[in-house]
């Protein structure tokens, strides 16, 4: 039997949900490793809906679970039903939905709150010493919940290649150790069993983002 890995999504689309390419990369690499992905999302309204052509919020209302089902091809469960006992690992792809629907990071930064369901799941995997994989912006969830943990969101100096580098500085203010890594690299916090990679925090070619996520997934499966 392959490892059973929970994948938690935050909607569908980079600006208001889970980043679709990151989510797809996670699912592809889990399949390649012979692992079974079990996809979950919270049954809550999105913070808002963004027109991805204009990059502007609209007046629409959408549900995180319903939108995430698009990526999961309908094979998805309510996050409230996740039972850590039957699972070997957890992976949360990035996308602004992590900072808008799974937490309030987008509006409150280091003073954010994490959705209770999401925090409970992260704490359950951590307490069970089961590995957690996080990419792009999702490491901020661990930064908020596990003080002193080691993470990467890429680089901590802002430039054209790393436009979101201030995230690393904010994570440091929460007491985390940020480790600079290239987009194709991962960082492993051995003590906390956290595996992180920067993904679209970097302006990089798509294949490099897929390669970094692949390394993250392989290490999560290896640790499981």
Automatic annotation (TrEMBL):
Gene3D superfamilies: 3.40.50.880. It comes from the Eukaryota. This is GAL3A protein. It comes from Nyctibius bracteatus (Rufous potoo). The gene is Gatd3a_0.
